[in-house]
Amino acid sequence: MKAIEIRNKYLNYFKNHGHAVIPSAPLIPENDPSVLFTTAGMQPLVPYLLGEKHPEGTRLTDYQKCVRTNDIEEVGDNRHLTYFEMLGNWSLGDYFKEESIQMSYEFLTKELEIPAEKLSVTCFAGDEDCERDSISAEVWKKVGIPEERIYFYGKDDNWWIAGEEGPCGPDTEMFYDTGKPACSEDCQPSCDCGKYVEIWNNVFMEYFKDKNGYSKLEKKNVDTGLGLERMTMLLQGKETPYDTEIFLPIMQKLQQLQKIDDIESRRIIAEHLRSSMMIIADGGRPSNLDRGYVLRRLIRRMIRHFNKLQINAEELSTLIEINVENLKEMYPDLETKKETIKEVILEEKDKFIKTLTNGEREFEKEIKKIQQEGGNKKIAGEIVFRLYDTYGFPPEVTQELAKENGYEVDLKEFDELFKKHQEKSRMGSEQKFKGGLAETTEETIAYHTATHLLNSALKQVIGKDAHQRGSNITADRMRFDFNCDHKLTDEEKKAVEDLVNQWIQDGLEVTKQEMKKEEAISSGAECMFIEKYPDIVTVYSIGNISKELCGGPHVKNTKELGTFKIKKEESSSSGIRRIKAVLIRD
Q: If you ran DSSP here, which 8-state letter would residue 114 be given?
């Protein structure tokens, strides 16, 4: 069964069970305070999980494009992906454990025709804070999972919460038995030997955690997630996602082009190319900051592995064409935005080839220093890491050049430095994702509202064609990206600041309406990625100053915002400017 067939079966199944099919949100969040990219299906639904009424009702389903950056360096093995697709269904105070589990079991065994004996499940074991999830276990028995294939684990395995506080609850996870031999008599779903593969996770949000502990929620939600690439791999009996039709045409072409055989490099190129194309199609551009830096890393890492396979980087254009043709049924945007994708990737490729040249020049300088100092024939790991970190110069290239010059590299020291660097990057990514439900605070809600005022002010000061291109919000500041072809003058910045503060002082009421998408657009409401919104949308208006499609939440009146102050205005990427600002609140 092909990936698109699995996706369509999923959406149709839940549609037939009363769920509204909503579009995938863009990879680049429109007004999300917590992350660089959309990282999970629940992320765009945070306001509704917190209590906002969703215009499409209480039962929802979708496929969500996702990017997670924690494990970029792990891509190349048999399972890690940067870009992936998550299938999900949600109950917003509607059904709960019994109906959720019944539908999951029926979809797996009837729609996907997975033999029931291939399935095992896990439930929350309970602890001093929260009771054992015997309800889920009993439902699993009722639908057909025998007791010996129902396992109980603690909070590390079967509990979900975003951050330290907020809505949370037990989850039940479904595992597919690959048929591989058990690693021991005690082999079970918690084992990572490869016999069991997690395929679906149903989270039951029935608790709220705060500094005083856990309490039961009045309104209970269900949040589920099923990874499409993994399910496709398992149903096709393949060892890795790279063996499925999603990646196969690219993998085969790379095998034809390569002069050196390296499966890991082929996987890195195939995965990073798809990820880069998806990010660019949703508006991403390479830069040295945040999501732009992630995109730059993906493209440059891909180019390094072209060199490793000794493939001419000019072949990138051909590979993009192959990917577009192969994936256009799943992602039509790739075809409509093909030329932009090519332009961005090929331009970045040309820049990085120059970087490689600069890196070689710096390497030669280091060799001369060592010779002048009369040192031994070993290049310090610190030098290798600096070439990598500062110039983007691949450590394997440094190692090859060292060997050609009769030197060896202190790889142990490099590995230690690289691990520290990786840990910092991972912590940074985790901090970005840590937000979610827990980050929706009084401060972030105020900043969210202020982005709408800033968007309107920019249109008045620099022109109506100025549009938001991204934002990032914390409890301490806001960051707002917008298209503009010049650095703002001091006069323009002051004019923007004065307008926002005038609107705050005016005490404008913030109102919310639900309407058809076409009606919202014809009424003058603005949004990014209009095609990604459902047929019924939520529109927030601030007086007669701002009108935008948005999920919220927002303050009730602009007087709640305080004083708006621009701290910095700078370039984000080509044609995109960035404002960093704060709200000074008493």
A: -
Other Cβ atoms closer than 10 A to 248: 14
Taking the C-alpha atoms of residue 519 and residue 35, their distance in angstroms, rounded to an integer, is 30
Ranges of the chain whose pLDDT falls below 50:
33, 429-438
The secondary structure element, H or E, covering residue 42 is: none
- Residues 280, 28, 5, 533, CA torsion sign: negative
182/184 Cα distance (integer angstroms)? 5
Neighbours of 448 (CB within 10 A): 24
105: tokens are: 């079991």
CA distance 584 to 564: 7
> Which residue(s) pair with 480 in the sheet?
471, 579
Q: What is the pLDDT of residues 509-527, one digit of tens each?
A: 999 988 888 888 888 888 7
CB 388, CB 422: distance < 8 Å: no
CA neighbours closer than 13 Å in the CB half-sphere of residue 251: 16
pLDDT tens digits for range 149-198:
999 999 999 999 866 777 899 999 999 999 999 888 889 998 888 899 99
Helix ranges restricted to H, 310-337: 316-327, 333-336
Bridge partners (DSSP) of residue 171 are 203
Q: Which residue has the tokens 């919000």?
A: 473
